[in-house]
Amino acid sequence: xxxxxxxxxFAAFLLVIIVVVITILLLVLPAAExxxxxxxxxxxxxxxxxxxxxxxxxxxxxxxxxxxxxxVEEMGVLYGQWVxxxxxxxxxxxxxxxxxxxxxxxxxxxxxxxxxxxxxxxLGVLYVSAESGIDEAFARNLRDSLGYFLFWGxxxxxxxxxxxxxxxxxxxxxxxRQLAESAIxxxxxxxxxxxxxxxxxEIGELARSFNGMIADLGRAAELRRNLVADTAHELxxxxxxxxxxxxxxxxxxxxxxxxLASVEEDVGMLARLVDDLQExxxxxxxxxxLHLEPENLVTxxxxxxxxxxxxxxxxxxxxxxxxxxxxxxxxxxxxRITQVVHNLLVNALVHTERGDRIVVAxxxxxGVVEMRVTDTGEGxxxxxxxxxxxxxxxxxxxxxxxxxxxxxxxxxxKQLVEAHGGRICAEPNEPRGSIFVVELPLAxxxxxxxxxxx
Length: 454
Ligand code: ADP
Hints:
Elements: H1 4-62, H2 69-79, E1 83-86, E2 92-95, E3 110-115, E4 122-128, H3 134-187, H4 201-250, H5 256-285, E5 289-290, E6 293-295, H6 297-315, E7 318-323, E8 330-332, H7 334-350, E9 357-365, E10 368-374, H8 397-402, H9 409-419, E11 423-428, E12 434-441, E13 451-452
Parallel strand pairs: 7-9
Antiparallel strand pairs: 1-2, 1-4, 3-4, 5-13, 6-8, 9-10, 10-12, 11-12
């Protein structure tokens, strides 16, 4: 059973051959017939003129037609025609086939009247049969040859089509089959499968896209596995704390009154973790709808600073603003960017010592507004600087857990900023502390309508 691709290719080749043969039949054959016809007519006229010339020459030399018979017979053989010469009164005086001699000529043949020098006297009439001898045979031969060449040409093309079909279909179907087999294996869960990237052209592109897709799927599967493992790990600590307190209460080792505050704290931690996880899941799946509007980032910063004013004052930390006058609006979802700024400020507050200060600056640079949150806390070691945006990553686990952080704040912030077409990164502050830099595109530079995080 032939492969489907082979059948299609062969059908395409066959169709082309049929079209070519029919075109030749329709165009070349009538043109050839026409040429043969023209050639035959021209040759006929030439022959008649020659016979006319010779016969007149004969008559003028002899003064009569007597003895002309062998001459006419020779003309008949020479031109492959039936030639008859009749006298003035219509009686046949010479016949190349020697059949009509002495009879009156009555056939409707091509005739040429032979006149004397004075052009008055009719010497006789030359008749040539309508059926042409050599020309007709020649035309038949030509037609036969054309048919012969067309037939063998089509047969050769058919053979070539079969060979080409086999070669081409092999070249095309082999990589396609490999792709299909790899797709089936990937569908069954084997994400290590790859197709050779050496294929050329569209198939090569398809192979590379396929490999890219499988690699993405592999990464996504790994992320999912890690997320489940990390989440289980994060849930375990508050849960075992709660269980410990409950057992201690049951055994009456601690007073419920003393334990309740700690249990409440751990339950609060669990609730925050669940909320953050849900938010991150929405952000990562692209389901967090963004309602983008032109807003002034200064408004967002001022609102966040006002919200944290009391907390900062309680910690003895000063919040200082360095905002550029008349900052152009940025295209943002107000709530989401407020969440980002709030998270950065809380982090800065948590990591800044009493008596120090936090500076929040905003300015325009080309097509973006840049916000910098600078603190003078313990800073982030260089090796950890990129990782702090990974989920559940904490530089100092014990310390951050004590502050109630879930380890997801910066991960969510990064997702949100990038969904706005912006950028977020951490830099070291001199001599100590960290700077978190956020860039958001100006209105007219970034996304223009409501969009989804992707
Ligand atoms: P968390 O809820 O633990 O604060 P984040 O994602 O907001 O989670 O931050 C991740 C980690 O990055 C923190 O645990 C902390 O170790 C580090 N970090 C974040 N902000 C700062 C900062 N301003 N100074 C020093 N370390 C920071």
